[in-house]
Amino acid sequence: MDLLDQESQWKEDSDSSSDDQEDQIEESLETPELVEEEPAAEEFELPTFDTGSPEAEHEDGRAWYVVHCYSGYENKVRHNLEQRIESMGMKDKIFDVVVPTEEEIEVKEGKRRTVERRVFPGYILVNLLLSEESWYVVRNTPGVTGFVGMGNTPTPLRPEEVAQIIKRMEAEAPRIKVTFKSGERVRIVDGPFNDFRGTVSEIDMERAKVRVMVNFFGRETPVELDFLQVEKA
Predict the structure, then answer these.
(1) Residues 117 and 66 occupy one common structural domain
(2) 51-85 residue pLDDT tens
(3) Strand 209-216 relative to strand 197-204: parallel, antiparallel, unpaired?
(4) Which of 144, 139, 161 is nearest to 46 (CA)?
(5) Average pLDDT over residues 159-165
(6) Are residues 109 and 211 in the same domain?
(7) pTM for the complete prediction?
(8) Which residue among 157, 176, 195 closes a domain?
(9) Do residues 170 and 193 both lie within one domain?
(10) Residues 197 and 162 in one domain
């Protein structure tokens, strides 16, 4: 599983919930569930975990797993899970719950603003020792819809995937939100060509630069600008 390669697909999946489900989701998340009841046998079957497998083992056996939840309720689900870890005495098996976020700069109506954006909408990360008990506590937390993995077996993140996520979360410079694409009309909002309009001809993500074709003295002239100097027209 390559978590970062699936990011754009996850964003699309997270927007697919209908408005009719929101009230039901909110109600279920607000309902405390501190006393655990045994599930009916027909509801689900606990998978068998091989905690000694090379994929799952990391130092003392703990690893990071991706948990799917209702999009927009990531922080609420994290709070619910943290309460269950405390009340059910699972601190020695479930160590951390994280909602990956990063700072992002966007330009709207000529103004810049910095917002905190969820890296993977609809997903949280959980660091745990995988067992029937820890699986049960996480899987039955209000708002959680399942683990990410093959079949019934959760798949841990690879160390390099975890490192990439941490790097994004700890980045000193905020990411820049790109709201335009090649061929679209944009308006220049900063610099010598302020308020000029043109067409995007090239986007350089590595350098955070965009080349815009601007009509200048009757000629189409290429102008290289920073992402923050343009916005969709």
Answers:
(1) yes
(2) 333 344 455 789 999 999 998 999 999 999 999 99
(3) antiparallel
(4) 139
(5) 91
(6) no
(7) 0.62
(8) 176
(9) no
(10) no
| Claim to verify: residue 87 and residue 126 sit in the same structural domain | yes
Dist CA 59 CA 78 (whole Å): 25
- Residue range 175-191, pLDDT digits in tens: 777 888 899 999 998 88
Which CATH number fits the domain that encloses residue 220? 2.30.30.30
What is the SS3 assignment for the chain? CCCHHHHHHHHHHHCCCCHHHHHHHHHHHHCCCCCCCCCCCCCCCCCCCCCCCCCCCCCCCCEEEEEEECCCCHHHHHHHHHHHHHHCCCCCCEEEEECCEEEEEEEECCEEEEEEEECCCCEEEEEECCCHHHHHHHHCCCCEEEECEECCEECECCHHHHHHHHHHHCCCCCEECCCCCCCCEEEECCCCCCCCEEEEEEEECCCCEEEEEEEECCEEEEEEEEHHHEEEC
Instruction: Please give the Cα distance from 3 to 164 (Å, whole number).
Output: 10
- Which amino acid makes up residue 173? A
Please indicate, yes or no, whether residues 101 and 215 belong to a single structural domain of this protein: no
User: Where in the sequence is the domain holding 194, given as residue range(s)?
Assistant: 185-232
Question: What's the structural domain count of the chain?
Answer: 2
- Do the beta carbons of residue 175 and residue 115 sit within 8 Å? no
Q: Are residues 169 and 194 in the same domain?
A: no
Note the pLDDT tens digit of each residue in 71-127.
899 999 999 999 999 999 999 999 999 999 988 887 776 677 788 888 899 999 999
Task: Check whether residue 99 and residue 61 sit in a common domain.
Answer: yes
